[in-house]
């Protein structure tokens, strides 16, 4: 498991695009949108240039999961994407991502964390609800979410400070 930004290896970028394709193609297809790997790769390159950070969880040479977030300012983050490989959905991968996210939040103390999810992505909508994010807008087939950094930190500390 690592947290990376900037000098991203091409292999990681390709693995991220592939994981996005696996997970997002059916969701986008329901909305009449075709997943475009080249566009996603260009978007990722642009996001990396702007300072996107990544938590990557590997199982061997398989990218089992990742979390991408963008510090918008010193005290505000935007979660760009969280993806879990279907082969690892029933494993402890989400916990591994959250443990690293917890460390990042402890180190940087954002005041606000924003995120979004396609309305038809039931697992993402459920995850946001479970984490305590509140819906702040509902448009273009997406929910936009917000949570205070302290609330998210509290959620994670209840999990990880128990020693579980």
UniProtKB/TrEMBL annotation:
Q: Which PROSITE patterns match?
A: GNAT (PS51186)
Could you give a GO molecular-function term held by this entry?
acyltransferase activity, transferring groups other than amino-acyl groups
Q: Which residues form the N-acetyltransferase domain?
A: 11-150
Q: Which Gene3D superfamilies match?
A: 3.40.630.30
Question: By its UniProt entry, which InterPro entries does this protein fall under?
Answer: Acyl_CoA_acyltransferase, GNAT_dom
Q: How is this protein named in the record?
A: N-acetyltransferase domain-containing protein
């Amino acid at each position: 498991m690592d947290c990376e930004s900037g000098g991203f290896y091409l292999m990681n970028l390709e693995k991220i695009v592939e994981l996005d394709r696996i997970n997002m193609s059916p969701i986008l297809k329901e909305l009449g949108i075709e997943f475009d790997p080249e566009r996603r790769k260009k978007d990722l390159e642009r996001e990396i240039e702007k300072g996107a950070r990544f938590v990557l969880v590997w199982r061997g040479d398989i990218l089992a999961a990742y979390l991408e977030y963008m510090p918008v300012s010193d005290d505000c983050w935007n979660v760009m994407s969280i993806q879990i490989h279907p082969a690892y959905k029933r494993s402890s991968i989400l916990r591994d991502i959250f443990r690293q996210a917890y460390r990042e939040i402890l180190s940087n103390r954002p005041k606000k964390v924003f995120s979004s999810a396609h309305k038809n992505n039931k697992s993402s909508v459920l995850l946001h609800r479970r984490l305590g994010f509140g819906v702040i807008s509902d448009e273009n087939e997406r929910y936009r979410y917000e949570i205070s950094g302290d609330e998210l930190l509290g959620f994670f500390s209840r999990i990880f400070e128990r020693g579980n």
